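Researcher: Let's continue the batch. This sequence belongs to DUF4445 domain-containing protein, and it's 644 residues. Same format as the previous ones, please.
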Amino acid sequence: EKDPLVVFMPSGKRGRVPKGTPVLSAARRLGVDLDSVCGGRGICSKCQVSFGPGSYPKLGLTVAEDALSPWNAVEARYDEKRGLKPGRRLGCQAEILADVVLDVPPESQVHRQVVRKAATLRDIRMDPATRLYFVEVDAPDMHEPSGDLERLNRALAAQWQIGPVEAPLSLLRRLQPVLRKGGFQITVAVHHAHRGPARLIDLWPGLYEGGLYGLAIDLGSTTVAAHLCDLVTGAVIESAGIMNPQIRFGEDLMSRVSYSMMNPGGDVEMTAAVRGAMDALAGEIAATAGIDPRAVVEAVIVCNPVMHHLLLGIDPVELGQAPFALATSGAMDLACSELDLTRMNPAGRLYLLPCIAGHVGADAAAVALSEAPGEQDELTLIVDVGTNAEILLGDRQGVLACSSPTGPAFEGAQISSGQRAAPGAIEAVRIDPVTKIPRFRVIGCDAWSDEPGFDAAITGICGSGIIEALAEMRMAGILDPSGLIGSAEQVGSDRLRPEGRTQAYVLHEDEDRTITVTQGDIRAIQLAKSALYAGARLLMDTRGADKVDRVVLAGAFGAHISPLHAMVLGMIPDVPLDHVTSAGNAAGTGARIALLNRAARAEIEATVTGIHKIETAIEPRFQEHFVAANAMPHAVDPFPELRK
Ligand code: FES
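Model: Same format as before. Here are the structure tokens for DUF4445 domain-containing protein:
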């Protein structure tokens, strides 16, 4: 008689196993992803499978009612105490007696796939660094003297083939009472990163049935955003953001570096400010989600190099001057207590992604992890626009990176009526090419300014608004290719008014305020967009490419910018408009991937080492490209897609 055949769905993995093999053992043998926290003791219920007798014509199998062994005492006790859903069996208890088809539901898969909502380049495979293990530890014995930690490690090795774990003093203090309270049965949370030792993070008497959570934090110079993720399902439970309190030391990064240079101890103040904010955010997000901060066992942080140093408590002065040396570009694996984070598990761990270069930070590395340019067949240009533009260009042949000093104009700074993207800001503009009359949309109001229902109090214009305004002015013939505003007679519009020796275009006027686009505003945007374009062109030159296949706009700003307007201004190289996409907060997504999958950490560390870094400041061609990119869209480079 042949051994029974078992087929696991949805993977389709199959094989013959000796009659009487427990389902969990069969799954292990066939490489099927079936979870277990209690190690087969019939108490965690993580190993559940669905069993449905009947015929499976596609598989050519008929499954008998008694293909699995009847409930044993352990399974019966579990059902009595907790209740098993109909058709469900505990994989560690049920034994295979005849040919059988078993379905592994998503909640029983360790490495379940989490489908990303945004640009689904790839799914996240669950493989978090911190996991729970239930263990039975030998009681101490006069005849065989050994410590409780040593016996715990023996048990982990025998029952889970992991460890030995290192235990911080704080947990060592709790180990003995917890072991005794649980009758030498305990659940431990173990952090096992892609490298380094396994570490004990927490322990509970008996079976711990609460969840484990982690934070994916995007630490920006203006805002700090965090997602609280379930480390078992991968779901985002809660998201929150706060302003970076370092703003009071300087709006942009370089002014914070200078604050540190001018004020002894300035870096210490800024470090305390950002750590305090992160700690408050961690506490707030756990409270909103109704989760015990102790269950938050990990955080992954992505940030630019200056924030990276300030968070670590390293004076960033070296990043303010050539050759922009980082204290370290490597990834960091730290205890959260080292960064004064008190509102998560006290033994919790922090992972900082590696930086790419002195100007290209861990945030860009996170974008590279999320967008995976090195896995694309098409040559892809990724721009993350902020005070600095971080630019990646690559495909399977390799990835290049640089950062370009765009300045804060794209964020509405240095613009006469500029402001941050907030309610009251003009965010989109259209100008009638014949009448030269503008209409616009304001953040906080859905109607356009010429539509009924428009009732916004207008306070200024934000980055996407000024970009659209300039591009529309160019398309309406108000601006010439060099960026000069024509006179009222030349343009044929009464919306122009002299301002000094130049002209300004009136976008909006009421009793409270007048919002104009001045020649100075145009100059500021020209400088910013030339820097962006020149950076991209420099990477294309180095790669030997005169065009790219795809452009990805990353970051919050990227989500609001219109591809057409960006291209009319010549912010990005010529490419079919439908090949320009927005990746949303790609850095935040990268942080989430690294949080949920430890192999992704090894992957990005390797990728970053392989990225070819270009330093724009020392490349003479950068200056040439910069000058040529001043015109709109460009002095020499053709933009055939715009003519379509
Ligand atoms: Fe825990 Fe089966 S493995 S109940």
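Researcher: Any comment?
Model: The radius of gyration is 30 Å.
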